[in-house]
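User: I'm putting together a small comparison set for a docking exercise, and I want a reference complex before I start. The sequence is below, and the ligand is 6-O-phosphono-alpha-D-glucopyranose. Could you produce the 3D structure with the ligand included, as structure tokens?
Assistant: Of course. I'll restate your input first, then give the structure tokens for the complex.
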Amino acid sequence: MCGILGYTGDRQASGILLAGLARLEYRGYDSAGIAILNDGKIKVAKNKGRLKVLEDRINAGEEVSGTCGIGHTRWATHGEPSDVNAHPLWSDDMAVVAVHNGIVENYREIRKMLGEHGYTFYSQTDTEAAVKLIDFYYKQEKTPLRAITQAIKKIEGSYCFVLLFKDFPNEVWGARKDLPLIAGQGKGESFLASDVSAILQDTRQVYYLDNMEIVQLKKGSVRFFDGEGYATHKEISEVTWDANAAEKGGFEHFMMKEIHEQARAVKDTFGAVYHSGKIDLTEKGLSDEAIKSVSQIYIVACGSAYHAGAVAQYVIEDLAKIPVRIEMASEFRYRDMPMDKNALAIIISQSGETADTLAAMRRAKENGIKTLAIVNVVGSTIAREADSVFYTMAGPEIAVATTKAYSAQLVACYAIAVKFAKVRGVIDDSECERLIAEIQKLPEKIDEILDEKGSLEAIAHRFINARNAFYLGRNIDYAVAMEGSLKMKEISYLHSEAIAAGEMKHGPISLIEKGMLVAGVMTQKNLYQKMASNMLEARSRGGFLLIVSPRDCDYLKDEADFVFHVPETDGHFTASLAVIPLQLLGYYVAVARKLDVDKPRNLAKSVTVE
Ligand code: G6P
């Protein structure tokens, strides 16, 4: 979390930093700040609130001139959002100024140690302790490199720093551990950023920093050092992402734009593994031999990626007849469970940076288990550390609430499920071809659903003042209900719970009141009747029934208050269609409530803290 940037070159830094921070705001948006080094002085402008507040205050950057600077958008961990706690933070003589992403876990000890040397502290942040620690070594060592190498030996936790040193004009320094930092190289200028989208307008030539690596930017040159301060060599990479993908393209919100990009994301993700009529996972480390040797699968993820994994659990188990366990990364990382050495861990993450997911993956690796990461962001930490990577082809996702990355994750899992089923002899050639054909038809069906979105916009107004909602489902539909419910609560702030429909009678039913939204996902033919009974139980207690079902489902047509029909598909792939109206419902309720759809309160897209 937190977006960080650095720039040095010939252009005015403030404008470049403000523009780049706008593209990093998805990482946090409770405060923003920049620092500019000019004529041997560092000037800082920062405040609580959105970037726009800062922008207005410094007249779009004109009030802070200079061609070398750093910037930050914050998601508070230590210390409430406030002007004082906003980054950048500085040493008292303004010799060292830094922005930081991550957590300095031992900041109390560092403060204590520095206190014994006369340092005092003005903020509640862990960052100030780190900045002053770097300053402490800088005063002894006299060079940024030696100060940083000394400091990172002492700092515990995960971090990414970008720094200015008053006495080193036109230089920006950075260091990372477990959190993303990339360096960009332009003509006569260079950049540091949390992610490529922030600098894509300016350069496509980037370097991905390794863990514990240190970087020095000068105008148009970038140098790297290891944790001991020895120079290292890195290869430059070219980013192929479309820069326009990070613009709204005529939509009111990124979320709606991304909802509309789902058909393409699904098509491209499947297309990446479908060659000459076959699914080929060899490049993903899954040769036929490797697939045959897998004894069981753990799927590990957080948030919506976990929900995609929950769908995958049902699909892979049913199609490939192999045991699958879906695990929340934050739980998995601290569980001491016996793990089969022939298991495969599938790690799902849009950003490839989620702290819990990364730690869970490392844990699986420590246990000698092969890891396959399904990741959207190229070059992210999870992608680089996994044994093999299956990149989803969703492109940059900006809205905090994920839609197209989730859909791309689903189809990646379908490809794995069908391939495993075929290689392990559970399905024959013709069934395999039929399933592939069904997957290939999903994009056009997704677009068909989007053509009907008007009816969901109309019904959403009914829930402007609603306080609670239930989302029910069984089997795959329960996993879809979890994602639908999350979409509703995270952007519309309407309290919502997903319930395995059969569990409702064991407690949640007592909460149903007249008019309460009870959304039912009904796509599993063998469970239509059971679901219908559970929905009618909710209706008898006053629930407002909203049903998402395929066109051929006759159940509840008369009893439900609202039915949204999705096209038919094979029962294993219904999640890809049923989730679309639920994403739209959450979106339209949030819009009707006049909320900030793309940046919901308290959330961040990339969650790099525990
Ligand atoms: C945050 C985001 C979610 C996302 C989750 C996991 O909570 O708001 O949309 O599903 O993190 O992120 P990942 O990048 O690992 O998929």
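Residues 302-305, 349-351, 354, 357, 400, 402, 603, 605, 607 surround 6-O-phosphono-alpha-D-glucopyranose (CB under 6 Å). The first strand starts at residue 3 and ends at 8.
User: Thanks, that's exactly what I needed.
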